[in-house]
Every structure is written in structure tokens, then in C-alpha cells.
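stuck on this fold:
=====
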Amino acid sequence: MNVDFVRGTEILKALADETRVRIVHILSCGELCACDIQTYFNLTQPTLSHHLKLLTDAGLILARKEGKWTHYQLSEETLGFFQQFWEGITVESDSCECKKIKKCCKRTRYEMEIGMENSAGDGGGFRGAVFSARGCRPL
């Protein structure tokens, strides 16, 4: 699966604010008018409009005009994309970025967790032994 980092980052930027995350949470119960959303916050109408615009621009919410009122709802398409994006960046797969570069110094997760010492007992530890034997630099 190819990860769309650009679109995913745009969504993360839109969610990088507590108020906007709360708006998404509130809209998880269904469509609401902007005036109803405002009752959950101690915000001015222009400030709320700014947050709603950022969420709309990121595609997280959809706006629907009805007379002079604007109603908002979550975008199921974008939420589906974001769930796949999140899984794509947090779950190891064959298409991970980390698979694209051959690593010269590999340690198993177990070896890193226990901090294996080398058998020479010179204090260099596992890292020193592996790096000097393979000619790699420590991370």
C-alpha cells in the first residue's frame, strides 16, 4: 500500500488543535448546524468559522448550506482514508519507508531491549562490538 504522506499530513495539521479535534468528536454523533456546534465552545462565531474552514479545507468535514444556515457533517471518505493512512504509518509492512534502505547494522529488538554486552568485557557493549566489526557508525 502506498502512503499518501501529503494528504495525511494535511489532515494531521487540521487535527493539531484541541478545538478542531473536539469538533470532529461532536460531529461523530451526526450533522449539526454551526450555531449548534458553537454551543459546545466558548468561542466567537468568527473563531469557530475559522476552525470549521480548516476542517473543511482538509476534507474532514462537509458543509451543506440550507437557507442562511450551514450544516456540517464528517466526511466518511476522508475518515476512511485517514484510518488507512494511520495504519500505513504505524504498522510494519513490505512497503514501509524503512524497507527502502539497506541497513548495515542490524540488531534484533531483543538485543536492543536487553542492551547486550560484548564478550570481550571491555565496556564497549554490544553496540561497540557490532559497529567496529562492521565498520558502521553508532546511530
